[in-house]
Amino acid sequence: MGLYIILIGVQGAGKGVQAQFITRDYGIPQISTGDLFRAMKTRTDALAQEIQRIMAEGKLISDDITNRVVEERLQQPDVAHGAIFDGYPRTPDQAAWLEQHLAKKGEKIGAVLYMKLDFYDAFRRAFGRVRAASGDAFNVYSQAEAIEWKWVDHPEKAHPPRLEAWLKGSNEKLERRPDDASADAIIKRIDIFRATTAPLLDYYRAKGLVHEVDAAASIEAVTDQIKSILDTLR
Ligand code: AMP
Q: What is the pTM of this model?
């Protein structure tokens, strides 16, 4: 029997980091439908182009297409002992399809790990994230003591001055990633997560598969929580 796990968590909950540890310790690959769709960017066929168009609009790809892409991925040899699903399933219909597909191979989902993070914390993890030119990352909320703020005149003096963040004791300016810079866009992503996740969690709760993980804890503590859940499945 393989180990099939579903990771659910809002952006910033640390799914990527924890998936890396699960892959390393349990020998199963991470299957992210978002990554699979993004990898199709270079393809010129009609299906791939349609997918890029839908993604750019921030909408969901149809269940039928998504399930077909997952089916293809599950045929690769590295999935022989299981997989970690990330960003999939997104709808109860996808969940039902996955269940049937695995059942045909005598497999089933072992656990749904809900990496629970307060939505305001999720916002602060994304909106507060800044990077120095050296690549070192900081968070303006949780590491406020390392950061110095400066009012800087706007180049076109008609606008109000800008607030800039600098690393204390150095001359390094701290910058946000462009996709973290819009508070509205971050709130929208969190809202979509909340709306789409609720029915999915209900679906898996009814099957007794959901394990809640406190994603606000340190990376190591979260890893320990996940380890103890997965070790009971073995
Ligand atoms: P993600 O990286 O998981 O946020 O996915 C990026 C985009 O890919 C989403 O906004 C959707 O357009 C599409 N996508 C990813 N996973 C799914 C899924 N399970 N069902 C439908 N669309 C998906």
A: 0.87
What's the pLDDT score for residue 15? 93
Ligand 1 pocket member 9 (CB < 6 A)? no
> Which residue bears the tokens 């809900």?
114
From the alpha carbon of 37, which atom of ligand 1 is closest? 8
pLDDT single digits (tens) 32-72: 999 999 999 899 999 899 999 988 887 889 999 999 999 99
The pick from 68, 90, 188, 192 for probing ligand 1's pocket by mutation, whose C-beta has the most ligand atoms within 8 angstroms, reads 90
Parallel, antiparallel, or unpaired for β 137-139 and 129-131?
antiparallel
Q: What is the pLDDT of residues 77-91, one digit of tens each?
A: 999 999 999 999 999
Give yes or no for a contact between 90 and 144, defined as CB atoms under 8 angstroms apart.
Answer: no
Residue 59 CA, closest ligand 1 atom number? 12
CATH hierarchy code of domain 3-118+183-233? 3.40.50.300
* Alpha carbon of residue 90 to chain centroid: 12
Q: Atom 5 in ligand 1: which residue has the minimum CA distance?
A: 34
d(CA 168, CA 173): 10
The residue extents of the domains of the chain are 3-118+183-233, 129-175
